[in-house]
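C-alpha cells please, single chain.
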Amino acid sequence: MGKPTGQMQESTRELLDEYNNIWNWDYNEMCRFIENYGETEFQTYYQTYHRLCEDYGTELVDNFAQEFDVDTVEHFEDMYEGQFETGKDFAEYWCNEVNEATMNLPDWLSVDYDNIWETRLSNDYVEIDCNMEDHTYGHIFKNLKWI
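Here you go.
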C-alpha cells in the first residue's frame, strides 16, 4: 500500500482520523484514494468523491477520475447524462428528449441513431464503461468543454 500515515502531512492524518471517527469511513479506502491521487487531492476532493461513490459506485467514479482527472469529481453530476446500453441508445434519447430541432420528427422518418452518435455526439460526450452488477456499462458524460 502507500506510504505509512506517519509519513503523511499532519493535515492529512487529521482528516483521516476525523473521517474515520465521525463518519466511520473506511480507513483503507481513504488510504487507497491517497495512494491513487495524492494527499492534496484527498484534502480537497475526498468528501465529494466518497459521496459520489455511495451514490454511483466506486468503479464508475474511479473510471470518471481516470478519464477526466480527480479534480473534476466536483463536476461529475453536472456532466453525467445517465446510463444507456449503447451510444445509439443515448443518441435516440438525445434526439427525442434533448435536442429541440429533432424532438418532434414525424414517425415515418427513419433516423440513423448510430450515425448520429458517431458523427455528432461522440465528440461532445464520453462513454465510460463499468463491469459492476449495479452500475454496468454505458454511462454518458458531457465532455469537459461544456462545463
